[in-house]
Structure formats: C-alpha cells, structure tokens
Amino acid sequence: MELLKRDLLEDVVIIGGLIGVQIVYAGNSVLLSYLMALGLESFTIVIFSTFATFLILSPIAIYFERDRWPKKLNSRLIIQLILISFGGVTLFQSLFLKGINLTSPAMATAMPNLAPGLIFVIAWAFRLERVKLSCVYSKVKIVGTCLCVVGALTMSIMQSTGVPTKESPLTSPSSPVFDKQKIIGCLYLIAAVFVLSSNVVLQATTMVEFPAPISLCAITSLIGVTITAAIQLIQDHKIETGWPLVSVGNLVGYSLLAGAVSGSCISFNNWAMKKRGPVLVSTFSPVSTVCSIIFSIATLGETVNIGSLAGMFLMFTGLYFVLWAKGKEGYYEGDGPESEFDAEKPLLS
C-alpha cells in the first residue's frame, strides 16, 4: 500500500512537472518575442542567456560529474564539442530567435515538434537507427515523419497568408496574399529544427566518450558564447551593450532567470526520462504550442487561422505516430537483448 502511494505520488509529480516545463517554455517564447520587439538583437540574447547557463551549471557539473570526465581530450572529441557548441548555441538559437521575430511564438513552439521525425531520418541516414520495412512499427515511424513534414509545410503556407490590404490594389479582395516575412521566418524555424535534430544526433555519439550531460551542456555553452561573441564582433565590429528600451540590469536579470529556469527544466526532463523513459517526456511537447497560442492571443494580440491549426493537428498526429511506434518497438521480438527495439533507450536508439 505504501509503495502504491509512493508510485502514485511520483506519477503526479512527473506529469505535473512535465506540463509545468512546457508552460515555462511557452512563456519564454512569448517573452523572447517581446524582448526582440524592444530592439534586442538575437546574438545579444544568445550571449547573455547562454553565459548565464554556463555560470549556473558549472558548479553543479564540477560537484556531481567530475569523476565522469574523460581522462584526456582527443582531437575528435574537441571537434565534436565545437560542432555541438556552434550548432546548438550559435546557429540554432540565432535561427530560432529570428524565426520567432518574423512569425509568432505559437509557430516557434510548434516547429520543434518536427524534431523527433527529423532525428529519426538523420539517425537512419547515419545508421544510428535501423529500419526494417517488414516491421509495422518502422512503417508507422515513416508515415509519422511524413505527416510531421506535411503539417509543418501546411502551417508555414497558411501562417504566411493573410487578407490583402489597401496597399495591394492589384489583388482581388477574396484572394489571399503571401507575407514574405512570415515565409522567411518559417524557413528560419525549419532550418533551426534541422540544426537542432542534427545536434541531438551528434550529442548522442559524443556522450559515448563524454558521459556527463550537465558538464557537456556547461562546456558547450561556454564555447558557444565565445563563438557567438566572435561572430557578432566580426559582423558588427563591436559587442552591443546599449539598447534604448532595455537596461543592462534588466537584461542581466532576464539572463540569470533564463539560465536558472533552463537548467531546472533540463534537469527535471532528464530525471523524468530516467524514471519513465523518453517517450512519455516527448509526448508532452505539444503542450507548449497550445500554451503559446493562448499566451500570444492574450498578451500580444496574435491570431491563428484555421489552416495553421490544421497544420498543427497533422504535425501532432505525425509526432504521436513516431513516438507510439518507438514505444511499441520495445515489445518487438526479433533481435534479442541487444535489439534496437527498446523503449527505455533514447529516441535515437
């Protein structure tokens, strides 16, 4: 009886915590959109928030993971760390923030739901994920991936159309016009998700030699900040330190808050993944999209059309197809104890 109560309490904590994490992610997307509307550059936000993540995670990594660090760094591991830093910090966050700025927080939180499908395709291409076309679950994963892509394209097209204005007299009142800014923003977001998916595959291979996730996050954050600052210095010939509508104190406060929240969310997700597996954690990702839509409508006055909602539905359906197939593969009998069909393995298998 006591064990049953403890398991029930643990389930409530995990489910409630995962919902809370997604609400935080949605709120952060809306806040980022607001900060950029005040004139903050994407590189500036990346530099401040990522450096705060490094400062917060470093002491935790030193205390808990020092014995898991590799004895020496070889050239391959150094190159992997640099690639993860550039892809996960500089490239992904910059593309993602530009995408938010040109589209909306709702679109920005919906696009990352493409990641499981893209990770599956990339891992399959690099033979990190085996696919058996005779297996029904492999077929479902392929169908789910296709639905994710179709849903993303539908969202991109529908979100980038709108009612023509007086400035477009050559267009008939009933025909939609394409918003070039939103199309470019959608392309930024799709590129960001592709970079993120590739980065996850690279992280999975790096963790074999560097089995310390908090330390890996802290190190790549520091390297990423250095690379991002160097790129901004080359591009603008200076590091931006003055903004007309945002004080340095407010930016530092946001960065520390973002670093603490990000570290807490990542730690909770890792704990939940260890307890219940990656499939359960991944199924909560659409919650952030729904919350972001609500926040955007309530605070920023955004609107979401029926076509975009249809695209989201297709994307979520494809996501759950992929996750369902990944979970069911754990019960597939065919390769013995070393089979890749193991529900407790990471999404890449």
Structure, explained:
Helix content is 73%, strand content 1%. It has helices spanning 2-37, 42-65, 75-102, 105-110, 115-125, 136-159, 180-209, 213-236, 248-276, 278-282, 286-300, 306-328; strands at 161-162, 177-178. The chain has a two-stranded antiparallel sheet. Helix 5 crosses helix 6 (136-159).
Secondary structure tally: strands: 2
**Tally of helical runs:** 12
Distance between the ends? 35 Å
Radius of gyration, whole Å: 21 Å
Query: What is the 3D shape?
Result: globular
Unreliable spans are 163-175, 333-349
Strand order of the largest sheet: 1-2
Helix-strand category:
mainly alpha
Q: Kindly estimate the percentage of residues that lie in beta strands according to DSSP.
A: under 5%
Main sheet properties: 2 strands, antiparallel
Mean pLDDT: 76
Order of helices and strands: HHHHHHEEHHHHHH
Helix content: over 70%
